[in-house]
């Protein structure tokens, strides 16, 4: 039971990321809903709420200040407790930064609400000391107390606003975090500085694959069940897989999921190549309530997106993406949405024995999207009479050659056919660090007078 967590009916919100030079912020903008969630502390009961944000790969955030909107009476906020939590398997986890009894540096009227005797105020607090947050998902947990002891509510946004981040969480006293049934975000702005790290980010041509659909008419039961569908990496391309999005129908939500990438064997999911266990969604978007056949209540259509700690590289071929979802408590309905098979892919499948056997859903695919980047893929070895090969490819600094007949010279051309390098090969090595990133053709002369033509990808 939520115990008066909301001031009025629950709505939803938008998380944005802003950056100008070294200054950056993570924010959810107000939509003046005149609605909020109870975060009152200091009385007989203790209420709080948590809103998430993500620090991207290649960035580190130095946090300095927090602003947030509250609905309250004319009484001032006397103090605020702020907790920065690390995400843990789809839920707010342990506190990595704790700031209690913070006195606001400002309390400014944001707008007059439509609720009697309360208005919305923007509250600002400075952290006593700045702190660094590397890549990952985090939650801001808030508690606040008013001088007159009345209740204070953290402003929330609309359901229909597209956003980044998870739908938010609430907490009463020492109860577990409650989530999965409200489709909103809290209004806040986390302010600081962002700096680049040395983490290498994937590059290439943007690539997506999967099945689209927006009828929201039905799906396949997915709680603790293995569901899988196929996608194809094109010939001649290496796919760097970074994100996976599914369309769901639900009353409740996915707490976390185990996601497997499998080989295709006899047009069914085969050997597991990569596993991501108990991954919490990165992003959730609300797409309204819809009737479904055979269920007495309208259900929520929501897109749920996952990403990985490290990108996964897949070579040309067919693969299956499998998901096994763990729901929030009290989830009544959870389906992976389906769409009629267009004939371009295999039918979707389900397994009720952990992937030992698979049953087809004839004529239907799941609605999903895999996304990332593609780069030309070339086999390194060219088995011929010279037993010639070269590595690595792609290459960053130095290209190495292996050949029955020693390589003596290389001429390299760009895609426009212009010669960009002509160099002697010494000890079967040549320095290519001076080349710009891109694709090249190389003509290698061997000491027996024969030549080899190679395609080189420069990082």
Automatic annotation (TrEMBL):
<dbReference type="Pfam" id="PF18962">
    <property type="entry name" value="Por_Secre_tail"/>
</dbReference>
<feature type="domain" description="Secretion system C-terminal sorting">
    <location>
        <begin position="391"/>
        <end position="455"/>
    </location>
</feature>
<dbReference type="InterPro" id="IPR026444">
    <property type="entry name" value="Secre_tail"/>
</dbReference>
<protein>
    <submittedName>
        <fullName>Putative secreted protein (Por secretion system target)</fullName>
    </submittedName>
</protein>
<feature type="signal peptide">
    <location>
        <begin position="1"/>
        <end position="22"/>
    </location>
</feature>
<keyword id="KW-0732">Signal</keyword>
């Amino acid at each position: 039971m939520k115990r008066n967590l909301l001031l009025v009916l629950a709505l939803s919100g938008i998380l944005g990321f802003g950056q100008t030079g070294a200054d950056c912020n993570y924010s959810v903008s107000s939509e003046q809903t005149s609605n909020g969630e109870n975060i009152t502390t200091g009385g007989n009961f203790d209420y709080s709420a948590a809103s998430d944000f993500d620090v991207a790969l290649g960035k580190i955030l130095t946090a300095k200040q927090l602003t947030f909107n509250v609905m309250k009476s004319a009484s001032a906020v006397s103090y605020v407790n702020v907790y920065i939590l690390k995400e843990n398997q789809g839920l707010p986890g342990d506190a990595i930064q704790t700031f209690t009894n913070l006195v606001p540096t400002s309390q400014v009227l944001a707008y007059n609400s439509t609720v009697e005797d309360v208005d919305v105020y923007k509250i600002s607090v400075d952290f006593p000391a700045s702190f660094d947050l590397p890549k990952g998902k985090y939650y801001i947990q808030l508690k606040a107390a008013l001088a007159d002891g009345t209740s204070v509510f953290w402003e929330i946004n609309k359901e229909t606003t597209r956003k980044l981040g998870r739908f938010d969480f609430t907490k009463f006293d020492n109860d577990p975090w409650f989530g999965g049934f409200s489709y909103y975000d809290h209004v806040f702005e986390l302010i600081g500085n962002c700096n680049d790290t040395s983490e290498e980010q994937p590059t290439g041509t943007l690539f997506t694959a999967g099945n689209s659909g927006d009828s929201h008419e039905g799906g396949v039961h997915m709680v603790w069940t293995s569901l899988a569908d196929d996608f194809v990496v094109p010939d001649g391309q290496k796919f760097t897989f970074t994100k996976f999005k599914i369309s769901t129908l639900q009353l409740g939500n996915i707490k976390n999921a185990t996601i497997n990438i499998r080989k295709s064997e006899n047009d069914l999911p085969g050997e597991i190549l990569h596993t991501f266990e108990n991954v919490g969604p990165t992003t959730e978007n609300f797409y309204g309530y819809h009737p479904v056949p055979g269920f007495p209540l309208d259900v929520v259509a929501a897109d749920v997106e996952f990403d990985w700690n490290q990108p996964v590289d897949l070579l040309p071929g067919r693969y299956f993406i499998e998901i096994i979802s763990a729901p929030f408590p009290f989830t009544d309905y959870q389906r992976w949405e389906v769409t009629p098979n267009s004939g371009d892919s295999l039918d979707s499948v389900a397994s009720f024995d952990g992937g030992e056997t698979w049953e087809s859903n004839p004529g239907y695919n799941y609605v999903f999207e895999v996304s990332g980047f593609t780069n030309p893929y070339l086999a390194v070895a060219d088995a011929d009479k010279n037993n010639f090969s070269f590595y690595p490819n792609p290459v960053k600094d130095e290209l190495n050659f292996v050949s029955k007949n020693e390589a003596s010279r290389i001429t390299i051309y760009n895609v426009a056919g212009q010669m960009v390098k002509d160099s002697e090969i010494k000890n079967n090595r040549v320095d290519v660090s001076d080349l710009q990133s891109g694709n090249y053709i190389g003509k290698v002369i061997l000491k027996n007078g024969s030549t080899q033509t190679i395609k080189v990808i420069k990082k």
